[in-house]
Amino acid sequence: MTETASGSVARGGKKPRKGLKMKRIFTKPGVHPYDEITWERRDVVMTNWRDGSINFEQRGVEFPEFWSVNAANIVTTKYFRGAVGTPQREWSLKQLVDRVVGMYTKTAVEHGYFATDEDAEIFDHELKYALAHQVFAFNSPVWFNVGTQSPQQVSACFILSVDDQMESILEWYKEEGVIFKGGSGSGINLSRIRSSKELLSSGGTASGPVSFMRGADASAGTIKSGGATRRAAKMVVLDVDHPDIEEFIETKAREEDKIRALRDAGYDMDLGGKDIVSVQYQNANNSVRVSDEFMNAVEKGEKFGLRARLTGEVIEEVDAQDLFRKMAKAAWECADPGIQYDGTINDWHTSPETGRITASNPCSEYVHLDNSSCNLASINLLKFLKDDNSFDIANFVKLTELIITAMDVSITFADFPTEKIGETTRAYRQLGIGYANLGALLMATGHAYDSDGGRAVAGTITSLMTGVSYRRSAELAGAVGAYEGYARNAEPHKRVMRKHAAANDNLRTVGIMDSKIHTEASKQWSECLKLGEKNGYRNAQASLLAPTGTIGLMMDCDTTGIEPDLALVKFKKLVGGGSMQIVNQTIPRALKQMRYQQEQIEAIVEYIAEHGHVVDAPGLKHEHYEVFDCAMGERAIAPMGHVRMMAATQPFLSGAISKTVNLPESATIDDIEQVYLEGWKLGLKALAVYRDNCKVGQPLSAGGKKEEAKTTEAAAGEPEVKVIEVNRPTRRRMPNQRPSTTTRFTVGGAKGYMTASSYPDDGLGEVFLKMSKQGSTLAGVMDAFSVAISIGLQYGVPLETYMSKFVNMRFEPAGMTDDPDIRMATSVMDYIFRRLALDHLPFDERAALGIFSAAERAAQQRGEDPAPLHESVDREILAQSAPIEAAKPEPAAEPAPGRELTLESHQRFTADAPLCMTCGTKMRPAGSCYVCEGCGSTSGCS
């Protein structure tokens, strides 16, 4: 445990304070941490997903040998500063870590954080060791900005505020724009703005907050497309008692209906498409802030009052259950709105005398005062799992102390996007320590994610982390002073500390691992309360659970934040390009922990590599299946399992949890209602849901048109009875000689050939497929399918009809293809009919189906009209170039398929996940956001 001692360094001429005494964790006296690492040089080459050209190249970069290719690539492309190709460009991880840690150490010394120079050196060396060994990582803005000539922005999370005045609304637009320009995100509560049902002082009717959301949404979309570090991320919150709440709830669901209608009419409504910008409210996450009063009314089936913003009087009463149903229905349709539980949030608020907590950051994990910010750091939990499968409690405690110290130092030198945010953050010093790799830790130790044992481990680790953090915060308060707002909030802050400690006392352990962690957590909370009573606290907030998108990849984590693993099989990038499929390395460790013999382990791992799941794996006991359950797939964790895990950790976090509860496509509105209700009962602060494929991912069927026809007929009265002669279709046989094209393809590693023959005058008339040896079952099925399709075409079935039925069909094999126009396919059928559409359908008809060639997508990105590119000469050029590239002995490096490709193959989900705006590969969920494993880009916090 770190002590405090009298220090000799004064700050700003003031009386010297007690500085901190630091103790070593991983390093040795007289040995620099870099000297114990084996370093190696690598080449980082990233290619353009559209045409294969090189869009980034830096050779000879230096990283520890144990860093994966993916982690090194992401750090090189994202975090190294300086123009590529110049002497000023960083080329070694040493330079990056030195740049960041140097600023932290220098500032800490100048402001009297340490008792002696030796303590400063220990701080410096321990930080460098931990960062170089991927034990933890600061959030991305630290790596972007600290130690550079840019403003020293260290925070990834911001909360703004807006009042019911036009000047304030315009200032909101400006402040959001500044934050987005820097690649960060922000959240805001619009409930102070008068509703559209209230009057202005001039006598007119107010516009309402939803109308002002349009302007903010357009601004975010413009800045996003202007080339920020990552896409603009924002959260918009509205209180449940606002008179415009129903309009707010249904806003994005209505826009989804518009997207469907426009896409069905032939407009380009894909992500990044030229027509998607006509749809509103697509750049924000929406959340409803519900009160305990409302939730009680829902349970009792009572009326609930909507209140005027200026007077607070009830101007309308609604049925609480009906309003709650509308929230769940909208979330079922489009995943918005999420829900935030106002009563729970403010009951755990450390600074209520300053103001209520009204909003959150875009991913919902940071909840604190308006006009404030939070810097994040996350611990790699798997680094504390010893060889004997015990948890390294002592070093975890020491590392947490170190991180909290460093994070507090960063607020001292940090710059902020607005003056108001800077003032609030310096006065309350909000921190956000968290962790990643929880899912991997649980699996490696033989704990099922959705089990009492798994929840006990998660709860005790979270309690220990926050207890140490606040104990350290109290020590910092003794050394350099409590936060400025502490004096007016001392009693409520200490009350919340007692609530955390009481929750720890009530925590029930299950096994040896969590029992030992809980014992240490109890000691830490006891010491925390004593020191806090004496010194106060340095930080109003200490902990939360962020999505850990990019930094999770930087630390080579198998799982992000609080999430379980997404897949048992993944792809690993190789030095020099290419990739190989591997089974998660936590699986053999878990099997060994459960006392399986080496021969059994090898057989089970081989089975998982082939099938992607453990069901019917040879020798694996049925009671052990649950240990290997993942977020999606053959044995997907039930939605309530995710909610229960959040509930197990929430009482031990200052903030909230970034997590989306995934539901299958078959989930009902009732299921979402139940998740939202249980989240409130279990004491969560915020919750978001996502039903698989609820976003527009394929064109609509003609059902709507049929219904319209029926309605029209009924309106016209009873139709006249007529005898109609039915013309039976006739077969138009193919001539003996006809033009044909043979395409060799690969889908998810499965190879095949397709021969498509056309009539001499026009039109596709025959398709034959080969994917296996003659006489095999698969070959027979493919032959039968080919005959059926060919006969249908010859009888006049339009190719577009087959497109609508088979595009987006999902089954194995699936994943990466070798076709430059179709990078990924959800099945062989999906690939075949996309290829046929590109070869045989005009542009307008393909656009209605959302099918474009690589050249057309590139033209859209440049803002050009892609239609003229559908000339045969362009297709011939593409067809000729593909085999040439394939024949090269050493092809240009391509972004190796990330784990999301394995998920597409084995888990068959997230067909509507966004494509990465940087490299074009499909992103995967990380908390409430998305992360690209190819290049590290995120759609939110990291």
TrEMBL record:
Domain Ribonucleotide reductase large subunit C-terminal: 155-690
Origin: domain of life: Bacteria
EC assignment: 1.17.4.1
A molecular-function term among this protein's GO annotations: nucleotide binding
Pfam families: Ribonuc_red_2_N (PF08471), Ribonuc_red_lgC (PF02867), TSCPD (PF12637)
GO biological process annotation, one example: DNA biosynthetic process
Catalytic activity entry: a 2'-deoxyribonucleoside 5'-diphosphate + [thioredoxin]-disulfide + H2O = a ribonucleoside 5'-diphosphate + [thioredoxin]-dithiol
Cofactors demanded by this protein: adenosylcob(III)alamin
Residue intervals of the Ribonucleotide reductase class II vitamin B12-dependent N-terminal domain: 44-134
Classification via InterPro entries: RdRp_reductase_class-2, RNR_2_N, RNR_lg_C, RNR_NrdJ/NrdZ, TSCPD_dom
Residue ranges of domain TSCPD in the record: 735-838
UniProt keyword terms in alphabetical order: Cobalamin, Cobalt, Disulfide bond, DNA synthesis, Nucleotide-binding, Oxidoreductase
CDD domains: RNR_II_dimer
Similarity-based family: Belongs to the ribonucleoside diphosphate reductase class-2 family.
PANTHER family reported for this sequence: RIBONUCLEOSIDE-DIPHOSPHATE REDUCTASE (PTHR43371:SF1), VITAMIN B12-DEPENDENT RIBONUCLEOTIDE REDUCTASE (PTHR43371)
Its biological purpose: Catalyzes the reduction of ribonucleotides to deoxyribonucleotides. May function to provide a pool of deoxyribonucleotide precursors for DNA repair during oxygen limitation and/or for immediate growth after restoration of oxygen.
Protein name, per record: Vitamin B12-dependent ribonucleotide reductase
Source species: Nonomuraea endophytica
Taxonomic lineage from the root: Bacteria, Bacillati, Actinomycetota, Actinomycetes, Streptosporangiales
